[in-house]
Specification:
By secondary structure, the chain is mostly helical. The protein is built from 9 helices and 6 strands; from the N terminus they run H-H-H-E-E-E-H-E-H-H-H-H-E-E-H. The strands form 3 sheets. Strands 1-4 form a two-stranded antiparallel sheet. The chain has a two-stranded antiparallel ribbon with strand order 2-3. The longest helix is centred in the first third of the chain and has 36 residues, at 12-47. The chain starts with a helix and ends in a 30-residue tail after the last helix.
Length: 263
């Protein structure tokens, strides 16, 4: 929003303050988010190791596991095609030990494994988007010198394009978490298949799902239109400009006896 205001020449001073504040704030918050994500990874490795195996693309248990940057998991052959690996880095990141052991999906029976594809790709989308945001923030703070951060139109346009990145990362993280813990609702205790009410039919699920779709198709476009209108009007337009009346009263003010201390 700040980048758009500056590029359009509308409320430029307010846009500079918003952009500057955001860059300083995210310079602290994004690395903090990455640190917390690392802690969460250690926790998941301890309590949901099959999810980690799916996220990392590990089929067989191994030490000195590589970090798989990209691959196409093949469930039929239980292997990865077109894998791009960095040796030993997977163990170092997950266990903080280059010799650490990472269990592979083959360690569990097929019925107790999550599907590898969705969490594998969703996790990489989440991390990739996070790194893009971090790079944008670092570059923006480096460009503060001489006020270039407010004048470089390419950077400002990149900030506008990055507006939905956080939302994309949240959705990708949600897919990683929820698909990665399958087939369990309560990990290791209650299976998803056993969590469904016996009275629930496919028609009930379909009707509920269509209802959610209808509501969100109404809420999201309406919300976007309202927010876009607020942004176009600028910060000053949110303050009501109603005149305050003043002048002589239309008739003398009559003071009540209690006001004069009587009674």
């Amino acid at each position: 929003v700040a980048a758009w205001l500056i590029r359009q020449g509308k409320f430029v001073e307010e846009g500079r303050v918003i952009l500057s504040t955001t860059l300083w704030l995210l310079l602290a918050l994004v690395p903090l988010q990455i640190f917390l994500g690392d802690l969460h990874g250690l926790n998941t490795l301890a309590y949901q190791p099959a999810k980690i195996a799916a996220i990392e693309g590990r089929w067989t248990t191994t030490t000195r596991a590589p970090l798989t940057l990209f691959a196409i998991p093949d469930s039929k052959t239980e292997s990865n095609r077109f894998a791009i690996d960095i040796p030993d880095l997977g163990s170092l990141i997950l266990t903080h030990d280059p010799n650490g052991e990472i269990e592979g999906l083959k360690h569990w029976p097929v019925a107790e494994r999550p599907p590898m594809g969705p969490p594998f790709f969703a996790f990489r989308i989440m991390v990739g988007v996070g790194l893009l945001m971090l790079a944008l923030i670092v570059v923006g703070n480096m460009m503060r010198r001489g006020g270039r951060v407010y004048e470089n139109r390419a950077f400002l346009k990149a900030c506008e394009i990055a507006a939905p990145f956080g939302f994309v990362a949240v959705l990708a993280g949600w897919v990683t978490t929820e698909v990665g813990r399958q087939p369990w609702t309560v990990y290791g205790l209650l299976r998803t298949a056993d969590s469904v009410s016996p009275s629930l039919t496919g028609a009930n699920v379909l009707l509920s799902f269509l209802g959610y779709i209808a509501v969100y198709l109404l809420i999201f476009p309406a919300g976007l239109l309202i927010m876009a209108r607020i942004v176009r009007h600028g910060p000053g337009a949110t303050i009501a400009d109603s005149p305050v009346e003043s002048g002589r009263p239309s008739r003398p003010v009559q003071m009540l006896p209690a006001t004069l201390g009587e009674g």
